[in-house]
Design brief:
Strand content of chain A: 25-35%
Number of strands of chain A: 12
Strand content of chain B: under 5%
CATH class of the domain at 1-69 and 187-252 in chain A: Alpha Beta
Structural class of chain A: alpha/beta
CATH class of chain B: Mainly Alpha
Structural class of chain B: mainly alpha
Helix content of chain A: 25-40%
Helix content of chain B: over 70%
Order of helices and strands of chain A: EEEHEEHEHHHHEHEHEEHHEE
CATH superfamily of chain B: ABC transporter involved in vitamin B12 uptake, BtuC
Number of helices of chain B: 13
Largest interface: A-B, 34 and 29 residues
Radius of gyration of chain A: 18 Å
Shape of chain A: globular
Shape of chain B: globular
Number of strands of chain B: 0
Largest sheet of chain A: 6 strands, mixed
Largest sheet of chain B: none
CATH architecture of chain B: Orthogonal Bundle
Oligomer: heterodimer
Distance between the termini of chain A: 40 Å
């Protein structure tokens, strides 16, 4: 379980997040949703120790994420962000192999290779394993990064907008793969997602943020409420039932 | 099969160049005189061997510096002479000459390295303040910074009447290398071994800060370690032979094109490529106007600029180039 207490992140006198408190239960997929600038990515970044909070604590199964040695944390929690303006020319396989670094410190064992092969297979990257990252499409590259996170074999995987750059087919495929990572590999997956219907369709929990505060927290069924969604996104949202599933409609 | 033979073949080619370098020069030294003429053997050991060793070590220093910087800065166009690092080391040595003219070479080396390090950190903090960090802007900022530092250095040198010490600094020639002057360069050998040990960390840093942190590395520590290695390599090379432009750009880029960016498996290729390029430049410089010499850095500047331009054009032609 990830528990965060009174988390605040400010830049100068501008507070972008918090104070927020809450918890992410072990297992399943939790999605962070909300409009731009709501603080979703900031929250994810703080949970994943990429940035230090201005105040507050993050506990992962009881240990303070920001005070535990990073090398130890790397065997329990992986975080993936999208900010790469520079694509290093490493092959997909090399990239995924770096996911094993926290375990092997660079000397790959037979077990490491098993993990690498499994992660490559899990994301259908077998044929692309020898390709360089800069020879891939945005979506393929995205899958390669996720495969790396899976190879890291942490119980917790935090992904910032993993559906960026993906078309409908690949977005759905990615969510299915993350779903099976949660169900079959027992991972706890935390995502920042923009599409509310995708979030509702594949998550076990949804945390909604707005203006740096958590405004709703619950199951997809609880969150798929027209008034609540309208308030969160500051846009009229209707919820219709299609084939027994709630579907949010926010445009013509 | 071909892949497995590539490295031994490259080693053979470079060995051939090294032998050619050993047998080229003002005195007639060949295999026969080496075996029978003690005077020739003495000259060989005092002048030829040190010169060739200096070539090898300086080339390795620049190639390795280029590899490290390009991964750490995440930019294909940075190396010690496009980030101001080399100019800072020159300023450091000039100031030391003013304060303590007779300082031993180890002190000079340390001073050059410290200034190079401070200069690199300054360059990076300057980059951190830039909103626009495109692949092309970064080296332009570095070159401008280097030009400013170079101007200050020249100004101080001219007011202190030390101008005559500067050209030696910047010419990047190997003609004055003899036994007793090149030995500090052995530090480069140590650096190569250290780099081999931390190669994975450098590659991971090249994947970005967030990736490095997620994999449990202290990004800051890798950054400073890498910059310190580059500073030391640049400082010692500047002191012994001067600036060697483009080598740190051309060689790592060529290697990256063919073999990708995995620092560990690329390391022998970067070193071999650097040695080959510099030895060829030095051989050209020594033979075209013999018995006079053109400094290797001049040839390197010309050859390097052409190769480098074609690399840039090739990347542009492939599309998405400036980002790749």
């Amino acid at each position: 379980m990830i528990e965060f207490r009174d988390l605040v992140k400010s830049y100068g006198d501008r507070t972008v997040l918090g104070p927020v408190s809450g918890r992410i239960e072990e297992g399943g997929i939790t999605s962070l949703i909300g409009p731009n600038g709501a603080g979703k990515s900031t929250l994810l970044t703080l949970l994943g120790r990429l940035a230090a909070p201005t105040s507050g604590t993050v506990l992962l199964d009881g240990t303070d994420v920001h005070r535990t040695p990073s090398a130890e944390m790397a065997r329990r929690l992986a975080i993936l962000r999208q900010d790469n303006h520079f694509t290093a020319r490493v092959t997909v396989r090399e990239l995924v192999a770096f996911g094993r670094f926290p375990h092997s410190r660079g000397r790959l064992t037979a077990e490491d290779h098993e993990h690498i092969d499994r992660a490559l297979g899990f994301l259908d990257l077998g044929d692309l394993a020898g390709r360089y990252l800069d020879q891939l499409s945005g979506g393929q590259r995205q899958r390669a990064y996720v495969a790396m996170v899976l190879a890291q074999d942490t119980r917790y995987a935090l992904l910032d907008e993993p559906l960026n750059n993906l078309d409908i087919k690949h977005a759905v495929r990615m969510m299915e793969q993350l779903r099976s990572a949660a169900d079959e590999l027992n991972k706890t997956v935390v995502l920042v997602v923009h599409d509310i219907n995708i979030a509702a369709g594949y998550s076990d929990h949804i945390i909604a943020l707005r203006d740096g505060a958590i405004v709703a927290n619950g199951t997809p069924a609880e969150l798929m409420d027209p008034d609540l969604l309208t308030r969160i996104f500051d846009t009229p949202v209707q919820v219709h039932e299609v084939d027994g599933r709630p579907l949010a409609v926010h445009h013509r | 099969m071909l892949r497995r033979l590539a490295l031994p073949c490259a080693v053979l080619v470079v060995l051939g160049l090294v032998v050619a370098s050993l047998l080229t020069g003002g005195y007639d030294i060949d295999l026969h005189s080496l075996l029978h003429d003690p005077e020739a053997r003495r000259m060989f050991l005092i002048s030829r061997v040190p010169r060739t060793l200096a070539l090898i070590l300086a080339a390795a220093a620049m190639a390795v510096s280029g590899v490290i910087m390009q991964m750490l800065v995440q930019n294909r166009f940075v190396e010690p002479t496009t980030t101001g690092t080399a100019e800072w080391s020159a300023l450091g040595v000039l100031l030391l000459t003013l304060v303590a003219p007779g300082a031993p070479v180890l002190v000079k080396m340390a001073c050059a390295a410290v200034f190079a390090f401070v200069g690199s950190v300054l360059f990076l903090s300057l980059l951190g303040r830039l909103a626009l960090r495109s692949q092309v802007i970064v080296p332009i900022v570095g070159i401008m910074l280097g030009a400013v530092v170079g101007a200050v250095t020249t100004y101080i040198a001219s007011s202190a009447n030390l101008m005559q010490t500067l050209p030696a600094w910047r010419s990047g020639g190997f003609s004055s290398v003899v036994k007793g002057t090149y030995e500090p360069l052995w530090v480069v050998g140590v650096l190569v071994v250290v780099l081999y040990a931390v190669a994975d960390r450098i590659t991971i840093a090249g994947l970005g800060r967030d990736m490095a942190v997620s994999l449990g590395l202290s990004y800051r520590r890798i950054l400073y370690l890498g910059l310190a290695m580059v500073a030391l390599a640049t400082g010692v090379t500047s002191i012994v032979v001067g600036f060697l432009p483009f080598l740190g750009l051309v060689v790592p880029n060529l290697v990256s094109m063919v073999r990708g960016d995995d620092v560990r498996s690329n390391l022998p290729w970067a070193v071999l490529g650097g040695v080959a390029l510099l030895t060829v430049c030095d051989l050209i410089g020594r033979t075209v106007v013999a018995p006079l010499e053109i400094p290797a850095s001049v040839i390197l500047g010309a050859v390097g600029a052409v190769i480098f331009l074609s690399l840039i054009l090739r990347r542009f032609a492939r599309g998405g180039a400036v980002h790749a």
